[in-house]
Amino acid sequence: MSSTDNMGLNANLQGALAGVRVIDLTGVVLGPYATQILGDYGADVIKIEPPSGDIMRHAGPMKHPGMGHIFINANRNKRSVVLDLKQPEQREQLLALCQTADVLTYNIRPASMARLGLSYDTLHAINPRLVVCGAYGYSEGGPYSDWPAYDDLIQGAVGMPWLMTQSGSHEPRYAPTTFADRVTGLNMVHAVMAALIARYRTGVGQHVEVPMFECLLQFVLGEHLSGKTWQPPIAPMGYARMLSANRKPYATRDGHLCALMYNDTHWQAFANLIGQPDLFQTDARFASHAERMQHIDALYAFVGQHMRTRTSAEWMKDFTAHDIPVMPMMKLDDLLTDPHLAATQGWLDVPHPFEGMLRQLRPPVRMSATPTGVWRPAPRLGEHTEEVLSSLKR
Fold it and tell me: Last residue of some domain: 278, 313, 328?
């Protein structure tokens, strides 16, 4: 692991969003992931928390109460301010902060924001330049608009557990990560940046809606709309390569390996390696890319039979020598000692004044003139309340 350097704690560096202030009302994963990225780019992110704190503070493991691992990993580069927005005086303090801000983010339903006296009209009236970005389950105006939404529910809504059964799973399953939250969070980041660019051009902020359901549909239906892209349809929905039961890491003689022969050159190299150089001339099912896509399950099964004949190391050596795309199947612990991450300083040791040394992933985006970085570790609950609110009195 690398020690902190220009990617570590260094308040003297200027990120691309230095000077941009974000008032962050979000909690759990979706919004905090998005605002963490904005903070990685240098924005001043002020995280507003209720007296009980963001609920993810309490998801263990943790060394100290209120500092759970998911919270730590989604809330670096932020300052924590505790405000009970149901109290008129503290709501006024939030509105005063909004007058100093460029962006406000939230991930509760708009009706809930209105009940708090924080509708877009209210926020726009006190600061016309403010970009207000709401990320919630479903777009406004439809029958789902008022429904609560979490990652599992959105995965189900876009068909992901069902797709698992179509590709070989014995039962419907969610992806074992907060996939919907993080996909939507990424959309939230670029939506905020686009709105900021528009504001620099027009001088006026706007409301930005980032719905989980519709964002994740873009990912799922990009492949699986398939033949129903056309009206009338020319084929059923579902992309055959993604749904193949044999699209999985290949079992080798001593483990598993991830390999993908995709174009004609890859496939011919594989045919040569298994001693069947004429395979793609003699088997009509595999003669072209179009034919291979039509018989993809059989093709992957064919590859799987041959992969079992050698060790993972033997295949890695031969595939890399012939420029066939290949990667070991990693376990989570393998990533801590991954040689590529070591060489590129993918891991950072970040000192925390109360938690000790933290292991953090380096922000994945690198910028030559305005570096990304871990400017400050995740805050304790309310750690910066006095600091931030006292600045309003100056």
Answer: 328
